[in-house]
Design brief:
- The complex is a heterodimer of chains A (327) and B (301).
- Chain A is an alpha+beta fold.
- Chain A folds into two domains: 165 residues, no CATH class; 151 residues.
- Chain A has nine helices and ten strands.
- In chain A, the strands form two sheets. In chain A, strands 1, 4, 5, 6, 7, 8 and 9 form a seven-stranded antiparallel β-sheet that branches. A two-stranded antiparallel ribbon of chain A has the order 2-3.
- In chain A, a hairpin with a 5-residue loop joins strand 7 and strand 8.
- In chain A, helix 2 crosses helix 7 and helix 8 runs antiparallel to helix 9.
- In chain A, 44% of the residues are buried.
- Chain B has two domains: 178 residues, no CATH class; 104 residues, Cathepsin B, Chain A (Alpha-Beta Complex), CATH 3.90.70.
- In chain B, strand 1 and strand 2 form a beta hairpin.
- In chain B, helix 6 runs antiparallel to helix 9 and helix 8 packs antiparallel against helix 9.
- Classes of the chains: A alpha+beta (327), B alpha+beta (301).
């Protein structure tokens, strides 16, 4: 029996990113990477728009804290490979059929992912996957079932297995200039991209304008599930981690505001859930009001953060690219 | 197609050797390695754009103006001369290298209905339909590629390893998972087969289908094998240049002659339906395989 470590899950609404966090050691081990790559959000989905993170972790094209091997197509003795991988500290993500998601209406097939991180000799495995309530959950399943659900995708393009492993001695410099540019773009409702990956949505809404989008969606009764608000609540917690790390002593200047924002994010999520149960217009108004407050609070906070970064208030010197060793 | 093989043979030799058979619609011989999906820097700069572009025609034109080749998902139903033109919804990639505003067309490169890579014109209107009808797909992507000036060193050990794996007909996954565990295959993107044929056994697959009744459809496989032989020759030349091992050039020229013959036999088969020609094609492929095996065995030992 062997189980690989999984970090606490900061993200629950996007399997690819949640897996990425969990495998790579999460915030504690990869704060620099998160600082450089996780600020912007946009609206994206193919079955209806919702707020999402920009970054698709497991499809990521850049060198990052985890190594990757992607295999498309049939794999002889997949169960054997999974066991072998786990034995050598390699996580496996398998695309699976069988997950029936009511949100997808008439779609018969729905690809799900299973992150396998532990095995026992008898042929069972521990995995993280979306459960029936659309939340990532731990499941203990027979490896043969996983293989079977993988093979069900044989005639599809999306017939893939990923192998991941923590990159040894990975280090990255925090690029405060990049973070500053990302924040400015966020406030301008633009997106700041590098030259590698560009993800957009059906709705071309970026940065702070996602709140306008949400308000519009509530007014048009187009918010069908709490996913967007869950993402926004997660986003605030990630922003908290990032600001705490990059601002150093300067964090104390914004701490109470960040904390209030995190609380507001959780409050909005609760209100959204209540609204989805009751569908009362009074609940919708309340949610809209909270969303507007968050939008303004976040705008002011990020403006202040940009000011702190610009003035070099995040450290004793204003060089970009702080080494972890310097912290 | 963006690369000229002569200028980028280091990259190609290191990445394009194994063959595999895979296709959701029908199996065929193909290269294992999807270069354009590869995750690490090579001779091409890449950008990937997922989700819907507000105006795909404008986006492509601007990308081309900026020197990018564009590869985008497209619904073949709306594209002329494709396997699924007017038949049914089918997602596939096409590459766009230029446009003509006067004619309102893109210059595209991709497979035609008979499996050939061909240049063709696609109207802006058709591109809009082919693109926007795919918006409910997960894999709804547009990628941009541009040649960069990054240098790439030939990895002679990698070439030798790939050749020996090819010769042993090892399923690429077998080797690469071991390599990944050993820390040598980070960022690899392997396209494995639905049919269980790997390495040199792909030629067994081709021989089998040519002996059967579906030889007519194998033009694409034959073309790929011809390209594969060019890459093998290039790889062997690399080993020779680096003083690792020499190879039998006469045997290589016999192999090239054989694949040319298979192509001619295939044309005859299509045009004249000559009796017994598929058996002769299968026999040529078998001889080709034997010769390739002897050639590579002489190099890899």
């Amino acid at each position: 029996m062997k189980k690989l470590e999984l970090a606490d899950n900061l993200i629950n609404e996007s399997a690819s990113q949640a897996f990425y966090y969990m495998m790579s050691g999460g915030v504690d081990e990869n704060i620099e990477f998160i600082c450089n790559n996780y600020i912007p959000i946009c609206v994206k989905n193919h079955n209806g728009a919702h707020v999402d993170f920009e970054f698709d972790g497991i499809y990521d094209d850049r060198i990052s804290p985890i190594e990757k091997l992607t295999v498309i197509g049939h794999v002889d003795n997949l169960a054997g490979y999974i066991r072998k991988a786990i034995k050598h500290d390699v996580y496996v993500v398998v695309t699976c059929d069988r997950h029936k998601n009511p949100d997808y209406g008439d779609v018969v097939r729905y690809n799900n992912f299973a992150l396998i991180y532990g095995c026992v000799e008898e042929g069972s495995a521990w995995c993280q996957t979306y459960g029936a309530d659309h939340k990532i959950e731990t499941q203990y399943v027979e490896l043969n079932k996983i293989v079977e659900s993988y093979e069900a995708l044989e005639a599809e393009w999306d017939y893939e297995v990923y192998f991941f492993r923590k990159r040894k001695n990975y280090s990255e410099n925090v690029n405060t200039r990049k973070i500053e540019k990302q924040l400015r773009a966020y406030l301008d409702n633009q997106r700041e991209s590098d030259d590698k990956i560009d993800i957009t949505g059906f709705e071309h809404v970026y940065g702070n304008a996602v709140y306008d989008f949400l308000i519009k969606s509530i007014k048009k009764s187009e918010v069908k599930n709490p996913r967007s608000y869950e993402m926004l609540a997660e986003h605030k917690r990630i922003v908290d981690c990032i600001l705490r790390y990059i601002l150093k002593d300067g964090y104390t200047m914004v701490k109470s505001r960040v904390s209030a924002l995190v609380t507001l994010g959780d409050e909005a999520l609760t209100q959204c859930r209540d609204y989805l149960i009751s569908h009362k217009s009074s609940m919708a108004h309340k949610l809209i009001k909270t969303t507007k407050i968050i939008q303004h609070e976040e705008y002011d906070l990020f403006n202040e953060v940009i000011g702190i970064i610009t003035n070099g208030g995040y450290t004793n010197d204003s060089n970009i690219g702080l080494q972890r060793a310097e912290i | 197609m963006i690369f000229d093989r002569k200028d980028y043979d280091d990259i190609i030799c290191n990445k394009y050797i194994p063959l595999v058979v895979r296709h959701p619609l029908s199996s065929h011989v193909d290269f294992a390695y999807e270069g354009i999906l590869e995750t690490y820097p090579d001779g091409l700069d890449k950008r990937r754009f997922t989700g819907v572009s507000e105006d795909i025609v404008k986006y492509i034109r601007e990308a081309v103006n900026d020197g990018w080749y564009v590869v985008t998902s497209a619904n073949e139903y709306y594209l002329e001369g494709k396997m699924m033109s007017g038949i049914r919804y089918f997602r596939h990639d096409i590459m766009i290298s230029d446009y003509d505003d006067a004619a309102r067309t893109f210059k595209t490169i991709g497979y035609d209905a008979s499996g050939h890579y061909r240049e063709s014109e696609v109207s802006y209107n058709s591109m809009n339909k082919a693109y926007y009808t795919l918006q409910n797909e997960w894999e709804f992507e547009t990628s941009l590629f541009k040649i960069n000036d990054r240098t790439y060193d030939t990895d002679i050990d990698r070439i030798r390893y790939d050749l020996s794996q090819y010769l042993d007909a090892v399923n690429p996954v077998t080797g690469y998972l071991d390599e990944f565990i050993a820390g040598k295959a980070d960022g690899k993107w392997l396209n494995n087969g639905i049919e269980p044929y790997s390495g040199i056994r792909c030629l067994d697959y081709l021989e089998k289908v040519l002996s059967g009744t579906s030889g007519l459809n194998e033009e694409r496989s034959i073309t790929v094998v011809k390209e594969h032989i060019d890459v093998i020759e290039c790889a062997l030349n690399k080993l020779k240049q680096h003083g690792v091992s020499d190879y039998d050039e006469n045997l290589m020229s016999e192999i090239k002659q054989l694949i040319r013959m298979v192509k001619m036999q295939h044309i005859k088969y299509i045009e004249f339906e000559e009796d017994g020609i598929t058996d002769r094609m299968a026999d040529s492929v078998r001889r080709l395989k034997d010769k390739e095996y002897t050639l590579l065995k002489g190099v890899c030992g």
